[in-house]
Amino acid sequence: MHEAAIADELLQIIEAQAWEHGLTRVERVALRVGAMRMIVPELLKAAFEVMAVDTVAAGAALEIESVPLVARCGPCAREVAVVDHVFLCPTCGSALREIVSGKELDLMQLSGEGGPG
Amino acid sequence: MKVTVVQGIMDANKRVARANQALFARHRLLVLNLMSSPGAGKTALLERTIRDLRGELRIGVIEGDIQTSLDAERIERAGAAYAHQINTQGACHIDGNMIAPVIEEMDLGALDLLVVENVGNLVCPAEFDLGEDRKVVLFSVTEGEDKPKKYPLMFQESDLMLVHKIDLLPHLDTDLALIHRHALEVHPDLTILDLSCKSGQGLEAFYTWLRAEIARKRAAPA
Predict the structure, then answer these.
(1) What is the ipTM for the molecules in this complex?
(2) CATH class of A3-68+101-112
């Protein structure tokens, strides 16, 4: 359900970036989304589609790259995949305090019509 | 053409949150973001806390609800130093922008503690920083032991978990130790306190935590 709130924030950034770079139409939006964000890609796409009507990003395709949740175990000195949000090292049982990836919620690239030249 | 942006989607909110944080820091005021599912007892716990600590702590509360000002009225009746109701008009969380104009006009220097009571929801509020010092998740024993694992971001982001309504435990099949274990799997450094605002069990430990946090904030550089 937080997909709608995130789509709203995303659309504001896209509108600002499109204006700054002179894009008259945004056709493709590339995102990186970490597993910890618990985002359902279909819901984010659906929310974005509805909110983007009558904006520069109307009809734009959202491309969502999922980033797995990985943490670093201090005692084992290695990176481990975090499964089912259990932040404990499967080898030594230590608490996994250092998150390496999986918290991303980033807009990476826009493409469309317009721009300099 | 292509434009490479690489920008956090929540950056705009984070900027506002940092500005709020700077304002709180100038007043060395401890600010808590209190979150839970609907009906976990956020307002009831605040009413009890305000009553118990009247004369010791001047507590202000910003109430967030989709509709109505019922909660701010309850907080005011309990004797809060300040109560303000925000109606989010459909939004399922409070964000930094919503509290910015409120804290701008408040007398922050007249408070010892400011609590932002978020909209009842275990999902969206976890995404939006307000500029608070501590995120506190309130979780009632009737909600089921599995919820910390079903809503991991909320429990990951929180600094303190209050397990509420423990006076009901004799009537339930709830396994309190399992709630703790699930929460600690998701966030191994989470501080957990069990309490009931009805029976009063565990409240003193919560107040001790509050006092220590207030003292720490007062000693922090402005």
Answers:
(1) 0.83
(2) alpha beta
